[in-house]
Amino acid sequence: MALEFYQIILIIFIGILVGISISFVGQTGQGVVLPIVLIITGDVFIAIAINLLNDFITSAFVSISYLRKKQFKLKKEIWIIMIIAICVSFIGVLILMTTPLSSVYSWVIPIFIMCLGVLFMKNGFPTIETVRNIAHKLSQKFSRNKNNEEIDANELSDQLEKDFGKNDNDEIRGYIKLGTGLYYILSIFFGVYVGFNAGLFGGNSGLIFVLALVLLYGYPLKKGVGTALVLSMINGLFTFLMYQILGNMIKSQIYFDFEITLYLAIGAIASGLIFSNFVQKMSAKTMGRGIGIIIFTLGTISLIFFFLF
After folding, report:
1. 224-237 pLDDT, tens digit each
2. Model-level pTM?
3. Does the chain have fewer CB atoms within 10 Å around its N or its C terminus?
């Protein structure tokens, strides 16, 4: 489809927002991409597939700064989450392709995006500090010492502060003991969440990956973000390919638009490369509220377009 000039400018602007969003702990750009692509194409499958591909492309470029500094580590234990996520994302795509669910998604997704916008307006963007706070609270509930007894809150706080500040050469140690029932329960939860978020909503779940890496494997935060970007790229690319393969097999259609993907990538790569080094110095509260308003507005417009056209 041939895009109008104003659509090209709008898509590049949306791409810029995506680059900023992914720079915040690898957060997906689905909040701004899905409603715009839905308005332009009217096809929920294309919207989800394009968001997955754009997240993959942007994450690849944003991760460059992390990879150069070796801020990533792929441990074999991580693959339990990845295998679950990939299997569940396949199920999510299959459900969307073979059930009436896709027929209601054109108004479900805008409502989901509006809720996401409200969340950003209220709490700001998830950042490293957000992960620190969430990890601190969850670790207080779940962490155990060597005798499997609850760790004192002050002791845990000191441990977290020490571990969050450790350098790249320090040993990576999780807060939840490997092989325990809680470890497997959380691994399954994270994997299922990531898989369904990718398969049904086209999100890369960067924040969830970071939380899993910090809580289950004790990753330092920067290394957790870098690793999460790599994991998000793997899961996002797989899910995108599933949309193409299953789309061709079930719907006899390929869900891809070169023009939209190109202009999104131009904006997202440019802003991602610029902001990946400086974004954590910005006010997540202010930035989140601003983009939250944009996301809520885009979701509202997309919902109006669905009912009017």
Report:
1. 778 888 888 899 99
2. 0.76
3. C
